[in-house]
Hints:
With 712 residues, the chain is an alpha+beta fold. It has five domains: 3-49 and 386-417, no CATH class; 93-249, Beta-Lactamase (2-Layer Sandwich); 251-365, Beta-Lactamase (2-Layer Sandwich), CATH 3.30.450; 426-474; 475-703, 4-Layer Sandwich (Phosphatase 2c, domain 1), CATH 3.60.40.10. It has 15 helices and 26 strands. Mean pLDDT is 81; it is low at 120-124.
Amino acid sequence: xxxxxxxxxxxxxxxxxxxxxxxxxxxxxxxxxxxxxxxxxxxxxxxxxxxxxxxxxxxxxxxxxxxxxxxxxxxxxxxxxxxxxxxxxxxxxxxxxxxxxxxxxxxxxxxxxxxxxxxxxxxxxxxxxxxxxxxxxxxxxxxxxxxxxxxxxxxxxxxxxxxxxxxxxxxxxxxxxxxxxxxxxxxxxxxxxxxxxxxxxxxxxxxxxxxxxxxxxxxxxxxxxxxxxxxxxxxxxxxxxxxxxxxxxxxxxxxxxxxxxxxxxxxxxxxxxxxxxxxxxxxxxxxxxxxxxxxxxxxxxxxxxxxxxxxxxxxxxxxxxxxxxxxxxxxxxxxxxxxxxxxxxxxxxxxxxxxxxxxxxxxxxxxxxxxxxxxxxxxxxxxxxxxxxxxxxxxxxxxxxxxxxxxxxxxxxxxxxxxxxxxxxxxxxxxxxxxxxxxxxxxxxxxxxxxxxxxxxxxxxxxxxxxxxxxxxxxxxxxxxxxxxxxxxxxxxxxxxxxxxxxxxxxxxxxxxxxxxxxxxxxxxxxxxxxxxxxxxxxxxxxxxxxxxxxxxxxxxxxxxxxxxxxxxxxxxxxxxxxxxxxxxxxxxxxxxxxxxxxxxxxxxxxxxxxxxxxxxxxxxxxxxxxxxxxxxxxxxxxxxxxxxxxxxxxxxxxxxxxxxxxxxxxxxxxxxxxxxxxxxxxxxxxxxxxxxxxxxxxxxxxxxxxxxxxx
Length: 712
């Protein structure tokens, strides 16, 4: 990549990248903030709506209880007056408190409007309502009449008073007797009279009962009927009932539209399903004027045309809802309704087990929060567009500045580049002429100094490569062939050159005796490699002159000491002579670690010890050999340098002799080469380092197991 493009990238990095990061951070913070605020507002709106809806249903339960109590007291009064009427006959007279309370003209019109048909499915003009008379029917029964001829009219002032005081609460007042007689207020004329007679509710008990919501055939309104028995001399003779419009009892809920036009109101009760499990049945639900086709009433309550069960897709929460109803408690829950997350607020069930349930969709509750978040998102998008425009302007300016400055910077760099190419082609006489005093000029001066130093380094590297090849040729390439033995040795240096040494020497070319030498020169690199090469030459040359191991090592030490007198270098060495014919081992130790003999059967290690100081320490030092029995079948002789057991890991822990012994024990059934490779691998795995810190050398001599028939 050319410098001008790098300069362009640099300028973009220092100008545009921070701007992008700052703007992106700001925009992301705004998005995050708007999301967090929106979420908090959503939660707050849902919580407040939940609390408010719960308060509404609980308040309604209290108000409804009061209204029901009014109806119940009124019904008890009417029942008592009927009982008195039946007992006194023509001598009956109402208390003065009920006489003279006649409704005005406006009240009559309002009553007529209330009795107008609200269901367009009903027939129009089938009934005429008379609020100034009581409708009496003898039921065409053969039983003896209980009521005197004019006695029904005697109760007219009572009925009017009840209607006047509770005009919205009372729709019909009716009485039905065992004689077949019936009374209805207000009076009904036309075809409606016969329709209404079919709706009689019979309750001959002394305990007041409330019916479930049902549809009034004449008005089309949903009503609740409260009924109570009429008694004479302790004997039930009939039933008196009051029909209460359900929308009147629940009139306070028309303002729920402030929450949402989608709010759903229901009256529910617990019932048993076909399989005996508890289910929640809807006994009435609120419908709007758009559903009923009536513009005069904003809301109406209707019972379902067929059995309707309430449910939710969240079975767990719906089960909690049922438990609330079973324990007759009010509450509020958030769970799905008709596929939408909603708030369910419900009152405690009344004596009939009926509870008011209000279901408010979450989406409608949080609509203000969603609008606010949309507004913030729009503002963020506008800010994003402004940022893009600013970035376009900045990028244009950076491009112009980069191309203007690049020509000034690249002239001297091109001179340096041509000089580098000459060096790369092998022309180490290349020099560059740059007179500037800036960093480019300093680089040019360093370049002119580097060229001769680089030539010298390459020459040294070439010499080291030759030395590596020479040293590699000094070490044995293949192990000797010794009948009945498996032999393998290998050195791995930590640098290009090393001070570790091993060798196989036959003192008699025609004999079977083999001498194994292993040594370790102090230090690393070129000095160690040179001393190692000298010792190898001394040892091989002295061996040709004959003699025992101790004599040979003594003579070699004298030569080494003369070479290292002023350098302070030294070398450890261990020589082991294997005589297969006599099955004997002879050993000379010059400051080196003893050899190890491993016996697989007993899993024990034996050291081949001996006395002797390192080579090169004292010129007059003398060395003597020690001997021991040769290897038995399966035994393994190990010669190694300290780089193996002194290898350390990252924690400073040494590999140690115990791990070496464990590795040999694991590889005891393998070949000599496999044992050596296993030791190197174990050291590498332990240190976990790609580069060695010291030279590693190992020589393995394994006595093969003789399974000839004669021995078996």
